[in-house]
Amino acid sequence: MSETFVSFGEQGAQLTYGSYLRLPQLLDSQHLESDPPAHDELLFITIHQVYELWFKQLLHEVTAARDALLSPAGAGRERLWWAQHLLTRVHVIERTLVQQVDVLETMTPQDFLEFRQRLAPASGFQSVQFRELEFLSGAKDPGYLERFRGLSDDEQQRLRRRLEEPTLWDAFVAALAGAGLAVDDDEQVARSLHTVAHDRDSHAALWALAEALLQHDELAASWRARHVVMVERMIGAKSGTGGSSGSTYLRSRLPLQYYPLLWELRSQL
Ligand code: HEM
Ligand SMILES: N[C@@H](CC(=O)c1ccccc1NC=O)C(=O)O
């Protein structure tokens, strides 16, 4: 072994790769419901766990982007730049989430049916982090709080807090106001967006942020579209394990827009 190799990381507490990353817990967290074990259920669990880890990371980044936009001008870091930087990372993760559907689609519907009935009434519908992301991004819908069954107190509280706190959109509007633009109602915000779009030299950072928000919205829509096509490939028109109509429900969510004013702006340019 070379000298540099042995001397590095040998001091202090014996941190190892496995202990740092909590691999014993992580790798002992895949428990199949099927018995005898269905071959593809491990893939199904792994994919969902990877999604939830990325959702956690997205919540971390979007929260920080929002907070940067809400912090007072001149408070340390360049706020608009930092928010934009984090949103660029958010986009890359979101593209990964869309592409990852390909891995699950290597499962055939017959192989999914080997363990599907064991999953009810669980469903992706109950993903708290997914809903937190929607709320935090700007699409608050308190109706989901009632439609959720079996949430723990902690999960309920997390969702409630997301409904109360400012969204990424609120923070963007605050940044418009910070630049002296009028934001008293949607009409004024729309006019201010028009001003930004037509004077990109004066409002470069705000325009870049507006585009970053739109990109985030578009990528969320891509995920919903990709998910529903996969669902139709797997279960056709069957109803969902979560109790919804299945693909009919999922298709009804496709038109969701986080930032309708940014989309409407396109018609006014
Ligand atoms: C075989 C693969 C999958 C099938 C057949 C499937 C099916 C469905 C169905 C039918 C619903 C509607 C709710 C219900 O169950 O009644 C749903 C919702 C949902 N699924 Fe999946 N899903 C699959 C994979 C995934 C994966 C990998 C994720 C990643 C986390 C995911 C996340 C979600 C989310 C977040 C919702 C709620 C969507 C909303 O309310 O807009 N699903 N899924
Ligand atoms: N809702 C799916 C089952 C499913 O995909 C699922 C089940 C439990 C936990 C997460 C899931 N993923 C997305 O809905 C179905 O109806 O087949």
From TrEMBL:
Looking up InterPro entries in the UniProt record yields: Trp/Indoleamine_2_3_dOase-like (IPR037217), Trp_2_3_dOase (IPR004981)
Query: Which residues make up the binding site for heme?
Result: 227
Official protein name in the record: Tryptophan 2,3-dioxygenase
The protein's required cofactor(s) are namely: heme
Uppermost EC category: oxidoreductase
Q: How does it assemble?
A: Homotetramer.
Gene3D superfamilies, alphabetically?
Answer: 1.20.58.480
Please report a single Pfam family linked to this protein.
Answer: Trp_dioxygenase
Protein EC = 1.13.11.11
Q: Which GO terms describe its molecular function?
A: L-tryptophan 2,3-dioxygenase activity
Q: Does the keyword Cell membrane apply?
A: no
Coiled coil spans: none
For this UniProt record, the keywords arranged alphabetically read as follows: Dioxygenase, Heme, Iron, Metal-binding, Oxidoreductase, Tryptophan catabolism
Q: In which pathway does it act?
A: Amino-acid degradation; L-tryptophan degradation via kynurenine pathway; L-kynurenine from L-tryptophan: step 1/2
Q: Give the cofactor note text.
A: Binds 1 heme group per subunit.
| UniProt record similarity statement | Belongs to the tryptophan 2,3-dioxygenase family.
State the protein's purpose: Heme-dependent dioxygenase that catalyzes the oxidative cleavage of the L-tryptophan (L-Trp) pyrrole ring and converts L-tryptophan to N-formyl-L-kynurenine. Catalyzes the oxidative cleavage of the indole moiety.
Organism, as annotated: Nocardioides salarius
Catalytic activity from the UniProt record: L-tryptophan + O2 = N-formyl-L-kynurenine
Q: State where substrate binds.
A: 44-48, 116, 241
